[in-house]
Amino acid sequence: MANEEIKRVWIEEGCISCDLCMEICPEVFLVEPSMDCVVKPDAHQHFRSKDEDIRQACDDCPVEVIKHAAE
Ligand code: SF4
Q: Is 59:24 a contact under the CB 8 Å cutoff?
């Protein structure tokens, strides 16, 4: 179901370090220079409040490597 509460967010291989997800939701995504994007270690505390932003980043990622799950 599309709008179940997000419990997990991860990045699959293939990130092109475009920074877009970090611009949309810096609480959850971190892109350091010359590195692939990572989900920040404390990101889970923002999954509820940033639900829409996480989904937006997932939809807008140009290589579709941001994934989330409700379990
Ligand atoms: S939007 Fe996608 S490609 Fe761009 S930095 Fe984030 S994970 Fe990587």
A: no
Q: What are the pLDDT digits (tens) for 50-70? A: 999 999 999 999 999 999 999
Residue numbers of the domain that contains 32: 8-69
Q: For 22-55, write each residue's pLDDT tens digit.
A: 999 999 999 999 899 999 999 999 999 999 999 9
3 part of a folded domain? no
For ligand 1, what atom is nearest to the CA of residue 29? 6
Q: Helices (DSSP H) in 1-71: which residue ranges?
A: 20-24, 51-60
19 lines ligand 1 (CB under 6 A): yes
Task: Select from 13, 19, 20, 55 the residue to mutate for testing ligand 1; criterion: most ligand atoms less than 8 Å from CB.
Answer: 20
Q: Is residue 2 situated within a structural domain? A: no
